Amino acid sequence: MKGESVIFVGGCMRTGTTLLQRMLCASPDVQPFTDECQFLTGLLDFLAAWRQRFDWLKDFYGTPEGYEAYAKATVDAFLRASFETQRPARTIVLKNPELTTHFSQLADWYGQAKFIVIVRDPRDTIASILDVAARHGEAGVPSQVAQIGRDMAKLSNFYKAYYVDALQSPKSRGRVLVVKYEDLVHRPEASLAALSQHLGLTLSAGLMPPDEFDRRERDANVAAFWTALRAQPPSPASVGRFRRSLSPEEIASIESQCADFNRGFRYW
Questions:
Q1: What are 176-210's pLDDT values in tens digits?
Q2: Model confidence pLDDT, tens digit, residues 71-111
Q3: Which CATH superfamily is 5-265 part of?
Q4: Phi and psi at residue 29, to the nearest 5°
Q5: How far apart are CA 70 and CA 74, in angstroms?
Q6: Which residues of the chain are modeled with pLDDT < 70?
Q7: Three-state SS across the chain?
Q8: Could you give the CA distance from residue 73 to residue 235 in angstroms, rounded to a whole number?
Q9: What's the pLDDT at 211?
Q10: What is residue 203's predicted lDDT score, i.e. its pLDDT?
Q11: Cα distances (angstroms) measured from residue 182 to each of 237, 238, 243, 251, 261
């Protein structure tokens, strides 16, 4: 991948990862807006699961280092295919919320890769997750968030779990740029200026690509994540939405459960 670069974008679901991806992919230096890289996330999940069961792999890879070389070569092949498909672009953006839990491994393998994590007020994020869960329930989609229900403790831990690997691991901690959703929608030009400097790309809030995922309108799982803002420029319309949909008791529970997270980001 000489002369090519990859940007990994993550963060909890409902924090604005798609908005951030669309803004990055508006750059003339980057490939067009693409699907979430759920396959890469699944591949890394699979490789990590078998790393923990190496006793079953000794006869095939010999040593943990041998398996690690195979695992990296497998991801290398995925990245090569991605670059080949997206030519002539020399920079690709790979986004999936669940990919965030693998940022430390990717940082260890790819010294030149860039990593961006977006955070959002946990109260707004959980309010939005509950909307998705309700739509999944109505459509009969057996998703994890639909199964959690309105358990604020579980939802708070669900939120925080996305960030542990990326923000606390020594392998990735110093390489991750954190973007706040609220800054992105209130001050997009300033946020994009910081991103431009970090990534070495030409970025502008005026270069918003159109939403290209209406082809998935019959997918009830995906459609549950859509809102009226999905194809719009950055808008602060949903900031503070939790006050309209969460009870005072639920808000207090989230603030208690996420007090450790709030010490770093000061949402309340």
A1: 999 999 999 999 989 999 999 989 888 876 655 55
A2: 999 999 999 999 999 888 889 999 999 999 999 999 999 99
A3: P-loop containing nucleotide triphosphate hydrolases (3.40.50.300)
A4: -90, -5
A5: 6
A6: 1-3, 205-226, 228-231
A7: CCCCEEEEEECCCCCCHHHHHHHHHCCCCECCCCCCCHHHHHHHHHHHHHHCCHHHCHHHHCCHHHHHHHHHHHHHHHHHHHHHHHCCCCEEEEECHHHHHHHHHHHHHCCCCEEEEEECCHHHHHHHHHHHHHHHHHHCCCCHHHHHCCCHHHHHHHHHHCCHHHHHCCCCHHHEEEEEHHHHHHCHHHHHHHHHHHHCCCCCCCCCCCCCCHHHCCCHHHHCCCCCCCCCCCCHHHCCCHHHHCCHHHHHHHHHHCHHHHHHHCCC
A8: 41
A9: 53
A10: 85
A11: 10, 9, 16, 18, 16
What is the pTM for the complete model shown? 0.91
| Rounded Cα gap, residues 191 and 184, in angstroms | 6
Question: Which residues sit opposite 177 in a β-bridge?
Answer: 116
Q: Give the tokens for residue 54.
A: 């190496």
